[in-house]
Amino acid sequence: MNTGDKQKRLLEGNVYRLIISLAIPTMLTMIITSVYNMADAYFVGRISVSASGAVSVVYSYMAIVQAFGYFFGHGSGNYVSRKLGAGEREKAETMATVGFFSAFVFGAAAMAAGLTFLKPLAYFLGSTDTILPYAEDYLKYILIGTPFMAASLVLNNQLRFQGSAIYAMTGIFTGGLLNIGLDFLFIIRIGLGTSGAGLATAISQFVSFCILLIGTLFGGNIRIKLNRLKPTAHLYKEILRCGLPSFARQSTSSLSVIFINYACAAAAPLAADEMIAAFGITAKITGLLYALILGFGQGFQPVCGFNFGAKKYDRVIKGFAFSAAFASVLGLFLGILGIIFAKWAVSAFTRSENVIGYAAYALKLQCAAFGFIGYLTVSNMALQNVGSVVPATVLSLARQGLCFIPAIAALCFLFGSDGIFFAQPLADIAAFFLSVPLSVSLVKKLKKL
After folding, report:
1. Helix 313-340 crosses helix 420-448 at what angle (to 10 degrees)?
2. Cβ atoms of residues 23 and 176 within 8 Å
3. In sequence order, what are the residues at sequence separation of 6 or more whose Cβ sits closer than 8 angstroms to the Cβ of residue 109?
4. pLDDT tens for each residue of 84-117
5. Which residues make Cβ contacts (< 8 Å) with residue 138, sequence separation at least 6?
6. How far is it, in rounded angstroms, from Cα 350 to Cα 165?
7. Are 83 and 58 in contact (CB under 8 A)?
8. 95 HSE (CA, 13 A, CB side)
9. Residue 53: pLDDT above 70?
10. In contact, 355 and 285? CB cutoff 8 Å
11. Which of 64, 137, 149, 240 is packed most tightly, with the most Cβ within 10 A?
């Protein structure tokens, strides 16, 4: 499909069919992204509880990298979609190149710093003394893959914001399948332990990066060109404006994992490794379920961005209403499935009965609040896409930051280790009620426009 046809489809095609057609490959992409770390958790869970805890600890670092990847990817991608919708392709090309190289440079700097301070970083992420050796073995390879992980997230999002969700899905899907195969080879067959898990992830991230970069050469997509590398204060201001909500959402996800790790060590020192492993497993499973909701919401984003840029506000409102309703029903359905299959799901990642008990209980409680997450997620994305920075950032911080951190602190103080299990579902419900007035205000503003 050439650029003109793609633009016409996004600006004139049936809104409902457009969102669904873009959401399906994006949902698959998000699922495969979740599989990267789930595959590691599945195979490492066969080694020991402490090894499983190491994957949970390093997951928070990967969430930090994802935060910066989404910051540059969503920040540049939002701008690209609006400029393409307005017919300003050269400006879109410059932004795409600046976003890509900025993420790669960040990843290289993070890799160098992390490898230099490997042990302090592992402790900072919440590692215990018994988890530490496994965490270091796993983390060093994840660090090596950081530049490609960050840049891949930018390419994936830029392709998606251009309406090329299939190209975005292909790169991530290939890397995810490769990760599973390499985990089996390195961990089970060769016996490299957590080092093998980290190596498998690093190689898979590099392969995804290469495929996504090739994807920019086809389908009328914007290519990454060195002669378009013209960073300016204005472009970084736009990245900050549109990428800050994504950064807030992903960084608070990382912080919430670190807070849980610390809370487990403080509130239940004798069972710290088991609880850290359990919450890590729960995070993988809820992350997979949330990936479906997030993926559907991201199917709405290019439709929102293109039409907002073209000043077709009625189509933006129509798309938001449909996406919010669909995502809410999807969240409720996924939550019910999570409750029903909780014990079976967590049993795939560990052989420890104590870990299974903790993880299943946490998963059921978190899934009970999943019906609230769909509306919250789509509202957040709509605010972000139209450039409402402050409301979008507040919502991004709410679920696992503004609402979660006070909840886990208060509940742990009042109920000890039992309080840790209730923090996330209560935070999800509180964040939903915060999203309602902000999204209603946005719709009113669009109607006036």
Report:
1. 160
2. no
3. none
4. 877 888 999 999 999 999 999 999 999 999 999 9
5. 40, 44, 54, 55, 58, 194, 195, 197, 198
6. 34
7. no
8. 32
9. yes
10. no
11. 149
The angle at the Cα of 104, spanning 102 to 106, to the nearest 5 degrees, equals 70
Q: Shortest CA distance to 153 belongs to which of 97, 223, 226, 74?
A: 74
The per-residue DSSP string of 50-85 comes to HHHHHHHHHHHHHHHHHHHHHHHHHHHHHHHHHHHH
Report the amino acid identity of residue 82.
R
Residue 106 to residue 96: CA distance in whole angstroms: 16
pLDDT per residue as tens digits for the range 344-388? 999 988 888 999 999 999 999 999 999 999 999 999 989 988 878
Whether the CB-CB separation of 398 and 436 falls below 8 Å is answered with no
In angstroms, rounded to a whole number, what is the distance separating the alpha carbons of residues 167 and 165?
5
Phi, psi (degrees; rounded to nearest 5) at 198: -65, -40
Q: Which position has the token pair 């960050």?
A: 150
Residue range 398-415: mean pLDDT, rounded: 87
Tokens standing for residue 173: 């899907």
278-308, pLDDT tens digit by residue?
Answer: 898 898 899 889 989 988 988 888 888 888 8
Whether 30 shows a pLDDT value over 80: the answer reads: no
Structure tokens at 61: 């670092």
What does each C-alpha distance from 201 to 102, 176, 178, 286, 382 come to in angstroms?
22, 9, 9, 20, 32
Classify residue 122 by burial, with Cβ atoms within 10 Å: 0-12, 13-18, 19+. Answer: buried
**What is the amino acid identity at position 347?**
S
Which phi and psi angles does 168 have, rounded to 5°?
-65, -40
Length of the chain: 449
How does DSSP assign 82-115, residue by residue? HHHHTT-HHHHHHHHHHHHHHHHHHHHHHHHHHH
Structure tokens at 300: 């709405």
DSSP 226: G
Q: What is the overall mean pLDDT for the chain?
A: 88
* pLDDT tops 60 at residue 1: no
Residue 295 in tokens: 């993926």
Q: What's the confidence (pLDDT) of residue 433?
A: 95
Q: By C-alpha distance, which of 46, 49, 201 is closest to 131?
A: 49
